[in-house]
Structure formats: structure tokens, C-alpha cells
């Protein structure tokens, strides 16, 4: 398996990264329906390092079309954000008219419930039909950090093929294993990481520090491409739980892959990667469990009556009242209705299952996990 690395500030140089792997014709045949899945998680444009640069996505669509494929860009942002609003704020609102390639709002389009036979944390999910029916999937994450999973690259980007609120099931069932479970049924044929402008620090994936890393990384295996991404940020992929789990479950390897273009050493810089405490690791592992009865009813609503395999209940949500501007975006993001706004935001600690979906959506970083 092979990873290519191009040092650049130009989105169009993604073409070079794919050519190093053998060209788009290696991945796309005439007549193939191809889903291009960027990371458009929240309404901040690509200059902040939050979302994939639309210029780079358009260039990939052009390459697919040149091979006779039919590209479609598809995404579901973090729940409860409206895709239409997020697309508009991130420069994707006029993507179809500007570049001539269709975009699908996964939350509004057809979807279906699928079983995950190899699931360790989740045994089903509700996934975009566009993605399930595609002949090829091109995964285009951003090179950035995540306060719960250290990084969010190709493996984690697959959470955006799950429809709206159904993403919560992955958070509450064990995020790391859940990410890998998803990747057992939705396979990336080509992963391209937009690392020209990325993000570092505990605030990722939406409130971290913008970092100009001037690199595009592409690969024919998502685990290996992610491993290379972590190394470029100065980290060790063996210390990133979901990447390590994906390798141990046979989805790729963490070392020994061929690197073309720039060497890993020449583009690597020590970045500020989130350090997970023992409690935080348990939080996202799905191992830590307490009384199911505390949150059975809301979970049953979410899962349509089906039991989740594992449950999480440890850690502490911190609310920064000084910074909170009362926008209430976090309230519908909570899968168990634990947040309430009456003059100030309050959390029902008994109901809270410490999934931190609320912290992901807060636009000002007023919610966080106790270190
Ligand atoms: S309040 Fe608790 S349960 Fe609700 S989203 Fe936040 S961390 Fe999750
Ligand atoms: S915590 Fe964040 S998302 Fe929630 S009301 Fe305050 S500013 Fe809005």
C-alpha cells in the first residue's frame, strides 16, 4: 500500500498527489458513480482549518470526470447543524453552480438502516443511500485534531455518511470502536487529506488553532493514510486509539507502507495534539459503563428500541459561563436532553452520559471536557 505526500499551498496540486499513486484512472473506471466525501462538519470556512477546501474537492471531481466517472459530493455535518447553512458558510453553498458537480445533503436525501456484522460497538447505523450505492468512495478529510479522538482524519470522516442524529449512537456506544465499525461497511477507495491549512490543539475539530501545514497526503488505504497524517503532525499513530484499533482489525497497517513524493521526516512538525487522560480514554472506549436505566428511555428513542452494545458514563462536562453567549445550539445536540437554558446553560449531571456531542457544536468553545 502507498501514501503520497506533496508539499504545497495550492489546492490544485492534489492532482500531483493522486498522480504519484498512479493517477485517478487507478481508482475510477468509466461509468463509475463516485462519492467524494469532504469534511464539512461546521460553518467555518477552510481558511480556519475546519473544513476541506472546496477548490481541492472540485479538482478531485474534475479528475474523476476526466476518467469518465460521475462524481457527487456528499456530506452530513455535525448534528444538529443544518447542512444548507453549513454549506453556505463554508463556501460550498454555490458548489454546484460554480463547478458543475452535484452536492447531496445526506440528512435530506435517501438513507437506510444497515447492519454492521463485524460491529464491536454498534451493530447497525442509518447511512446515506448515495454512499451505499456508489461504485467508488473518495474520502477527503482535513489534517486536524479532535479533543476526543486526538485526530479526525479519514477513518473518523466516515461519521459524516451517517444521517443526522443517528451519529449520536456512535458517541454513546464507544466512539473509537464505532468509527472502526463504520469503516468495515463503508470502505474508502482513495483517501486525500487536505493538510494545506489544518488545525491543532484541544479545541479541534471546530475550535482549535488554525495551523498552516502546507501538505497534501493521499493514499490507497485509509488506515495508512491516517497514520501518515498523524506522523506529519509529530504524533505516533499507535497512540491514536481508533487508528490502532482499525489496524488490529485488519483494515490497514501502521507502518511499512511505501511513501512517495516528500518524505515523512521532511514535512513533519511537532503539533499540539490533544493528550487524553486515562478517564478520557475510558470515555471514548465504550468500556466504562454504569446503570443503563439512567438513560434508557432517551437511548431507546434514538435507537428505535434496539439496545446499544455498550454505554458510557464517566468524566465531566465543563461549562464556561463567561464565554457562553446563549445561542442554544448545544441543546438539540444532546442525545439525552440533559441541557437546559434558563438565564444560563445548565447540565443535568444525572442524565448526562458524557458523550460531549454538545462540545463539538459549541461555536465559541464554551463547553469542554474536564482535563
Ligand atoms: S450534556 Fe452530556 S449527554 Fe448531553 S451532549 Fe453534552 S456531554 Fe453529551
Ligand atoms: S454553551 Fe456554546 S452552544 Fe451552548 S448555548 Fe452556550 S455558546 Fe451556545
What does this structure look like?
- By secondary structure, the chain is α/β, with parallel strands linked by helices.
- The chain has 15 helices and 16 strands.
- The protein has helices spanning 14-20, 54-66, 83-89, 95-99, 129-133, 154-157, 168-173, 175-185, 222-232, 241-248, 264-267, 278-285, 296-303, 330-333, 357-361; strands at 2-7, 33-38, 70-75, 103-105, 111-115, 124-128, 136-140, 142-146, 150-152, 190-200, 209-219, 258-261, 317-319, 339-342, 344-347, 367-369.
- β8 (142-146) and β9 form a beta hairpin.
- The longest helix is centred in the N-terminal third of the chain and has 13 residues, at 54-66.
- It starts with a strand and ends with a strand.
- 53% of the residues are buried.
- The model is unreliable at 286-297 and 304-313 (pLDDT under 50).
- The structure holds iron/sulfur cluster (SF4) (2 copies).
